[in-house]
């Protein structure tokens, strides 16, 4: 059982930045970030493979968010810049046991999930 722990959420003004961290108890194959706003479905944000650092982003965050990883620390980061009110959500990190090109935006690719951290961007 992989344990995941997110941190770094908070409240910022629109246009501001936050960096989320997710520490994993062990490395799998890939990690992802998802978010869920009240009354909305869970949305894919970004993913990265531990080996090779292959990244993939959701359309709504491309050019503003950057996912990265530190293999030695078993930690994945999500740098969020130019935050908008519509980025407000609970952000979850997740771990996948496999990587499939073009499918990492699917939440059923991920076997383990963190508890989530709240991000609020106010106008």
Please characterize this protein's 3D structure.
This protein has no helices and eleven strands. The protein is an all-beta fold. The strands form two sheets. Strands 2, 4, 5, 6, 9, 10 and 11 form a seven-stranded mixed sheet that branches. It starts with a strand and ends with a strand.
How many helical stretches? Answer: 0
Indicate the percent of residues in helices: under 10%
Radius of gyration: 13 Å
Strand content is over 45%
Could you give the count of β-strands? 11
Which of globular, elongated, flat, extended, rod-shaped describes the shape? globular
Structural class: mainly beta
**Stretches with pLDDT under 50, minimum 5 residues:** none
**Average pLDDT across residues?**
97
Separation of termini?
A: 40 Å
H/E topology pattern? EEEEEEEEEEE
Q: What's the oligomerization state? A: single chain
